[in-house]
Flavodoxin family protein (Acinetobacter sichuanensis), 470 residues
Amino acid sequence: MNILIVHAHPEPQSFTNALKNTAIEELKKLGHQVEVSDLYAMNFNPVACAADFTERGNPDYLNYALEQRHASKQHALADDIQAEVEKVQKADLLILNFPMYWMSIPAILKGWIDRVFVSGIFYGGKRFYNHGGMSGKKAMLSFTLGGRDHMFGDGAIHGSLENILIPIQRGTLAYVGYEVLTPFIAYHVPYISHEAREQMLIDYRQHLQNIENLPSIAFPTLEQFDDKLYPLNQN
Amino acid sequence: MNILIVHAHPEPQSFTNALKNTAIEELKKLGHQVEVSDLYAMNFNPVACAADFTERGNPDYLNYALEQRHASKQHALADDIQAEVEKVQKADLLILNFPMYWMSIPAILKGWIDRVFVSGIFYGGKRFYNHGGMSGKKAMLSFTLGGRDHMFGDGAIHGSLENILIPIQRGTLAYVGYEVLTPFIAYHVPYISHEAREQMLIDYRQHLQNIENLPSIAFPTLEQFDDKLYPLNQN
């Protein structure tokens, strides 16, 4: 497989960075091609704005998604966006590798999505969810967080992690067509021993060795809804 | 009340901007003090990084939350962060006003949270949820989106909006202590008539006129959990 790892951590010595390096090493050992977008190292600009388009459909009013659609047809995306789009298009598997900030992805990674998941290429019209532009490809999260395992789940203090991940796993990755694989989650990272972290890297290698057989998360398909996206079966 | 509106839209002629202007006008008319952080106009930097601290607890390894804690004690936060922290501290009500991007907030607003919701001031140790640093204050979302009302809810194509908003309403605003008020949601904005949009602004005025009586969203309290954050009553 061609694999793209998008990595977002400000500290090169971080455990999140070690996860990224472990993935590069292990995936290459397994015979895959691996490319990396290290967003902090690239000084990636995460702010969606008018300068993202070298030519505008409507120069007087910025509707970002409409301009994405226009620019994707006219080859008028800014160079940094175009380069990332091509990396994503080439990849059979996309891995987002990040520390969880505020039950979500860091801003630099959020902005990578805002700017790179271009309307007209990733989605548009009825091309979303299982008909999204990236259908046939896989995506997976690998992330670190401060909380412990028991703080997540139904009835737990933060609620279920599955729910917390809805915007990124369902609303973003599944929305553009990806089959979303079971994430790799490293809990309580800042507070555990060096040995426990080393074990996590071993666990991550095993997770990656199993990548072709990892279960994917079930999401609705367009076939369950009518033309106006009302559910076909309300029972 | 002192009210802070944090606004994040790249187009000054946008309907999201009209919501912000409507809120300023209506809230002032109701006798409140209103301050605005217009993130695009401020060219706000959303990327959490080492330069956010003028002095470091550990100059050799960046643990962002630990450095926030250190810097908040040593008055060593970067000026742009310090200015925003002071605006938030002064405000009895915080309104986040934005277009929904990828079932979430735009990166520039995500980065405002990543950088401004400083550990040691907003939360830390056992100061979170109903004991968070902003407890006693209120927060509210006002946002625009492309989807229609019927596309959200249990069994709907995108699932429930309440779930989609968990990272921001529960994992962020409630986490730091805010009482989270019922959001104002403008559906299907790019596709509706000018008249329908005008009606939405009227609806928003009414929402704001009722701000002191708006229901707030129920979240768990620390008193429902033990010292290690296991639920006290598992039934």
The domain at 2-224 of chain B is CATH 3.40.50.360 (Rossmann fold). Chain B touches chain A through 57 residues (CB under 8 Å). Chain B has one domain: 2-224. Chain B has a mean pLDDT of 96.
